[in-house]
Known about the structure:
Blueprint: H1 4-16, H2 20-33, H3 38-50, H4 54-67, H5 72-84, H6 88-101, H7 106-126, E1 129-134, H8 147-159, E2 164-168, H9 179-193, E3 202-205, H10 212-225, E4 229-232, H11 246-256, E5 262-266, H12 275-282, E6 287-292, H13 297-307, E7 314-317, H14 323-333, E8 337-341, H15 348-357, H16 362-379, H17 385-393, H18 414-434, H19 455-467
Parallel strand pairs: 1-2, 1-8, 2-3, 3-4, 4-5, 5-6, 6-7, 7-8
Helix pairs in contact: 1-2, 2-3, 3-4, 3-5, 4-5, 5-6, 5-7, 6-7, 8-9, 10-11, 12-13, 15-16, 16-18, 17-18
Amino acid sequence: NMTSADLKNQGNQCFSSKDYESAIKFFTQAIELTPSDHVLYSNRSAAYAMLQRWGDALADANKTVELKPDWPRGYSRQGAALHGLEQFEKATKVYSKGLEIDPNNQQLKSGLLECDALWKKQIEQQAEVNVWAMMITPFEESGAIDYKMVDHLVDWLIQNGATGIFALSSASEVEHLSEEERISLVQRISKKAKTHRGDFPIVGSGVFGSTLEEKANSIQQLYKSGLTSVAIIPSQLSSSELVNGWKDNFSKLLQLTQDIPLTIYDLSPQDGLSEDDVTWLKNTGRITHFIDTSSNLEKIKQRMLNFSQTPRGQFITTNDVYVFSLLELARDNSISIGYSSPNTNFYPAVLAWLFRNVTVRKEQAQMVQRFISLSQLLIGHKFPRSAKKFLSELPAFGAKISCRSREAGLDLTEQDNDRIEHLLETTCFVISELTPEFSTPTVTADSKPLSSPTPDSSRAHGESKTRQKSVLL
Length: 473
């Protein structure tokens, strides 16, 4: 039988050969023989880190420090794992504690400097509020998707402050699009958005089909087409066609879709998901965004604070009435939130101005918020055709978009057209009143919002960190 030392040596050899899975197995067997050996936990933590299993890496690093609190490398392992989890503030504290033991440790020093810089950058990013354009789908008079107008609309939304796009939703008339149209639409939006920024975040509903396997295939196809995170409506996983409850079905869907980033779109404004449900979803580690449609302010606040604890996650509200209160709460707690609503198709630049000025021009921002709240009553009437009519009359849009819609019952009356004209005049007045403070934001690399992570970018980021922290004993 192999001794603990033999197993450790085997694990070290596998690690050197980059066979990290085998290394973990040997270290685990060694730990079973000598569970008090802190070096074994440290080495297994490094192997977990190389596989980007940051939670496991942190657990072993914590055990290392517990067994040997005066050993600097344990704190280095903790810092690396927290870095991988993007918990930069905690990482800086860990590195600082290690330096109290070994003030000249270069690995701890470099880790502290890197995480301190990332923590400051994270705070700056978290102060931003993302405008998620709930994008409409332009159609030609023939009824086909107008892809040239799709390009123009994407450009206009981004140039006027949209920092993310909700590509497939009721706003885009997704239920009236074929599977081929959904895929081609996402591809077109993604291609155009990437001309502004390579990692521009795009979310869209992706659960189509009757069986879980069909739904998983739909998610995979849309993700491959360009969505950076695929939205799931929990109620779609508890239909009569599926045997188990939505949580069991969701767990199965997680397995079927591997590591595809997912967004939760809670379309139950009255009751919706419970806080326990939100916590359960958050703990799966797969949720990048939570789109909330609740009309209860206290519930929205509770959910926002709950989901904000998710690494790389972002809470998105669709509520226009309480947007000012939510923005203040986000600022006070230094968390990142998003806003998405049909009105993002009407005046994204006004929304962007509001989110930039919620604290610096508070009184003016409150008046803008009241305009947004009141105008929403009109915007929701016969949407999305109302948005197309608005844009067709808006000089700043710079193109003549067709008012064609596939959804029935949206024909605009003369009174509807008059009201849209009044909204257009009022919107232009609001913009003029915000001048010279008002300016159309331009998307630049220096003002990137928190974006949806992708497996490729996450892996590259993780490897660069773990390579410099991979020394074994």
